[in-house]
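Lab manual, section 2.4: Encoding a predicted structure.

Procedure: take the sequence of the chain (190 residues), apply the prediction step described in section 2.3, and record the output as structure tokens. A sample record is shown.
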Amino acid sequence: MGRASKREEIAEAAFRQFHARGFSATGINDITKAAGVPKGSFYNHFSSKEESALEALSRYADTLRFDMLTSPDLPPLERLRAHFEYLSRDTVDNGFVRGCLVGNFGAEVADHNEEIRTAAKRGFDGWADRLSRLLAEAQEAGDLDGSLGTVATALFILSAWEGTLIAARVDKSMAPFDAFFQTVFDRILR
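Recorded output:
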């Protein structure tokens, strides 16, 4: 009987390490130590650190609670706000140290690795598309000005969110989140 695969443990450890430390500061030794496996086990499942980073990006999408955006229990703009409130609480609960993995990789690795840049772009595009559809739904419900361009507004909100995360991590406070919610929900989307 062969040994059990350690791929799941390694992939999960890589995700946690990349999210907490970033791409450059995370080495394969950090990943295997966090997974509790020998270094050679890493290469049984991933050909490179970059390949494990692509897997981490895939796993990250599952943590963003996109299901909140499509729940029929709340009006569209309330779902949108609940989504970002969840993400801000997650950042605060984790001591302002993690931010958005897609944004982190976009800033840190995208200029040096086309595969990771493409994966980060795909992540942002998918997220912005979800936001745009939700804004269109709010327009159809009469809750949002119909002249507001949903695609551009979704991209703006996502870009503002990424900047908010950076500012919150630097400031170690809720002030950037408060400014985001006030500007986006009390001004732009009211």
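Check your result against the sample. The first helix runs from residue 7 to 21.
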